[in-house]
Write a structure and sequence with these properties.
The chain is α/β, with parallel strands linked by helices and about 325 residues long. It is built from ten helices and eleven strands. The protein is globular, with a radius of gyration of 21 Å.
Length: about 325
């Protein structure tokens, strides 16, 4: 199994989101009014001019502050049981490591290490921990010894930097071994993760776990709602040996068509594929009489033809 996941699965861990009214971008706009755009903190040229906004953000998500979610632990269980081929993630928070996941490709780098922007000296992220929490810009000791200056930046990919070559190398190696693709918490609009479904053979089953369906792609099975609730329900059905700690079990499920299953947290507005009525609003659950459970015997041959990503729907990062 190959898994592709996005930062949405980390929000339940307490990691702040970016775009909500109280999110990272809104707060930085207030604290650093000189920022031309909140996303500029991830621009390498702006970082070289003023790294302070980024290190304010870094303090909030520094490794060790958060624990893995049920979704992270589910992926860890897949690896422990020999079911995981690779986890391709755009998360930068290193919670995969905390969940015991080793078969992971950090598509946008991670907070595991930091490197000097001038001499490229690399060190463990905890080398800069004291500076980050004290809100000092961490300086490279090697550059300092030589009488110059350099900033130690966590090894995440900024706008203006090249993506790690390991993504394309690993995907080329893995694509012939995949027997199932699981996409978790993703809009599949940001590269390079958006490329994963495209390069796989069309006969490989693809499953989506997300708050909302994706209008530009059709999956063989769609499990729509909170990912933590969904994976906990899957583990409950898998039985002994798959237990993960989660709240709100068992989940109530409503089925739309023959391949879409709605869990608590599903965003209904996105579900518009010709269904006259997607059923009741999901959140409090449906009545026991109307509950339709997810089956693992969905008829793949009756699914709509899978839509491949159009380049107009993707963004380079």
């Amino acid at each position: 199994m190959c898994i592709s996941c996005i930062p949405q699965i980390s929000v339940s861990c307490g990691i702040p989101d970016f775009r909500s009214p109280e999110g990272v971008y809104a707060r930085l706009s207030q604290e650093f009014p000189e920022l031309p755009d909140p996303q500029a903190m991830f621009d390498i040229q702006y970082f070289r001019d003023d790294p302070r906004p980024f290190f304010r953000f870094a303090k909030d998500i520094f490794p060790g502050k958060f624990s893995p979610s049920p979704s992270h632990r589910f992926i860890g269980a897949l690896e422990q049981k020999g079911k995981l081929l690779r986890n391709y993630t755009q998360n930068i928070d290193t919670l995969e490591k905390a969940a015991g996941i080793s078969k992971v490709v950090y598509c946008h780098g991670s907070f595991a290490t930091a490197s000097c922007c001038e001499c490229n000296w690399k060190t463990d992220i905890h080398t800069i921990e004291e500076d980050v929490f004290s809100q000092r810009v961490p300086e490279c000791p090697r550059c300092t010894e030589k009488g110059s200056s350099g900033v130690l930046k966590p090894d995440i990919v900024f706008f203006g930097q090249s993506l790690p070559a390991t993504f394309h190398q690993q995907l080329e190696e893995d694509k012939g071994k995949v027997d199932l693709l699981l996409v978790m918490g993703s809009s599949l609009k940001v590269r390079p993760v958006s490329l994963v479904p495209i390069v796989l053979d069309g006969c490989i089953p693809q499953v989506l776990i997300n708050r909302e369906p994706l209008s530009h792609m059709t999956f063989d099975v769609e499990l729509i709602g909170y990912s933590d609730v969904i994976v906990a329900e899957l583990c409950r059905r898998l039985g002994q040996g798959w237990e993960i700690e989660a709240k709100g079990l068992p989940a109530e499920i409503h089925t739309v068509g023959n391949h879409t299953h709605l869990f608590p947290g599903a965003i209904m507005e996105a579900l518009d594929r010709g269904n006259s009525s997607p059923g009741p609003e999901v959140g409090g659950g449906t009545s026991p009489d109307s509950r339709e459970e997810v089956g693992c015997d969905c008829e793949l041959e009756s699914r709509p033809k899978r839509a491949r990503l159009d380049s107009s729907h993707t963004e380079n990062s």
